Amino acid sequence: MARRDTGLLLVLAAIWGSSFLFIKLGVEELEPAVVVLGRLLVGILVLLPVVLMRGSLPDFRSMWLPFLVLGALNNAVPYWLLAFAETRIDSGLAAVMQASAPILTVVLATRIDPSQRVRGVRLVGIAVGFFGVALLVGVQEGGQLVGALAVLGTSTCYALSVLYAGRAVRRVPALEVTTGQLAMGVLLAAPAALLQLPSEAPPAKAVAAIVALGVLGTGVAYVLYFTLISRAGASRAILVTYLVPGFALVYGALLLDEPITTSAVAGLALILGGTALGTGSRLRR
């Protein structure tokens, strides 16, 4: 990977890692549904100029159903679950647990297509990854346990969306898919959010967090991700998955005074190691 592409990868990981911080700041003052709607609205406004400039407007007439499904699985539902989870657990822990999405993707793929049965080293990797998840879930109590399970729901949504997208929108340009699903995500998130809007203007900190979440984590990050895919290839761009949790843990510790526990570090090592083995990818320095 070229030095410039490596820098782009690190910037993208830093941005996506900050999303967990901004979610935490948002849900301290606003309902999770409101944070989700604000994030989606700002994100699509950031992407719209890029879409118009490239002439990549989504074809809602023929693709409304795939966009709707992906808007639910990739945006509205997992965004809400993650925001809800962060009302109960630390932002860094949420990022670590969400890193289990690639492992869940492999497991679900074997259920949908028996020919993709996992054996050998990949099976060991999946077992290691699940042990890491079990370690993190097992140390939680009460409301924290509910939050941890919500993050697993987020990972499951992402896994299902990958499998669905591979069949439904494989030939559709990625920017069109992203814009289409974000638009549908807005429609899905709006009813609950509008019912829970605050009666008074929220604090500036919460508004700034939502704007940053939408501009960086939802808008700019997608543009950078597509750029990285076009420059370095999808197999290298997906390495961002391994870097995001580390950034999120550091942000949480430095800016929110969240503790970096031994269980979080051990769980992260097991999940990422299991992901590398279970998905057949190799971690590069």
Write structural notes for this entry:
Helix 1 crosses helix 4 (91-98) and helix 1 (3-27) packs antiparallel against helix 9. The mean pLDDT is 85. The N and C termini lie close together (11 Å). The protein has helices spanning 3-27, 32-54, 60-85, 91-98, 101-112, 120-138, 143-168, 174-195, 204-232, 234-237, 240-255, 262-278. It contains twelve helices and no strands. It has one domain (3-278). By secondary structure, it is an all-alpha fold. The longest helix has 29 residues, at 204-232.
Keywords:
285 residues; mainly alpha; 80% helix; globular
Any idea how many domains?
1
Order of helix and strand elements from N to C terminus: HHHHHHHHHHHH
Average of the residue pLDDT scores: 85
Count of alpha and pi helical runs: 12
Largest sheet: none
Rounded to an integer in angstroms, the radius of gyration calculated over CA atoms is 18 Å
Detail the topology: elements first, then pairings:
Elements: H1 3-27, H2 32-54, H3 60-85, H4 91-98, H5 101-112, H6 120-138, H7 143-168, H8 174-195, H9 204-232, H10 234-237, H11 240-255, H12 262-278
How would you summarize this macromolecular structure in one to three sentences?
80% of the residues lie in helices and 0% in strands.
